[in-house]
C-alpha cells in the first residue's frame, strides 16, 4: 500500500521526467503459466541516461514489484498490457496522450 505522500512524490517525479515527445520503453520480463499476469519493466531515456521508472509507476498504479524478475507485476490478458499500463499512467497523471510506448 502506497501512502499519500509517496503517491504525490511519485506523480511529481514522473511529471518532471516526462515530456510530450518522450517514449516509455517496456520490457517483458516474464508471463505467468496461466497467462493472466506478466512482469514488465518501464524505462525512459532522460538526458542521455536510461532511467528506471518501476518504483514511480508501481506507486501511481499500485503495481507490485517482482524482485526475482526486476519489473512490475501487471495483471490482465487479451490486450497489449504495456500499452494499457502506459495509457493508465498518463490518465492518472492528467497528461496528454502524445507520450509513446515501445517494446524492447
Given the structure, what is the number of helices? 3
Distance between the termini: 29 Å
Radius of gyration: 13 Å
Instruction: Give the % helix.
Output: 25-40%
In total, the number of domains comes to: 1
Number of DSSP E strands:
6
Instruction: Find the structural class using helix and strand composition.
Output: alpha+beta
Mean pLDDT: 93
Low-confidence spans: pLDDT under 50, at least 5 residues?
none
Largest sheet: 6 strands, mixed
What spatial form do the alpha-carbon principal axes imply? globular
Q: Helices and strands, in N-to-C order?
A: HEEEHEEHE
Beta-strand residue percentage: 25-35%
What does the model show?
Strands 1, 2, 3, 4, 5 and 6 form a 6-stranded mixed sheet that branches. The protein has one domain (4-97). The radius of gyration is 13 Å and the shape is globular. The protein is of the alpha+beta class. The protein has 3 helices and 6 strands; from the N terminus they run αβββαββαβ. A hairpin with a 4-residue loop joins strand 4 (64-66) and strand 5. It has helices at residues 4-17, 54-61, 81-93, and strands at 23-31, 37-46, 49-52, 64-66, 71-75, 100-103.
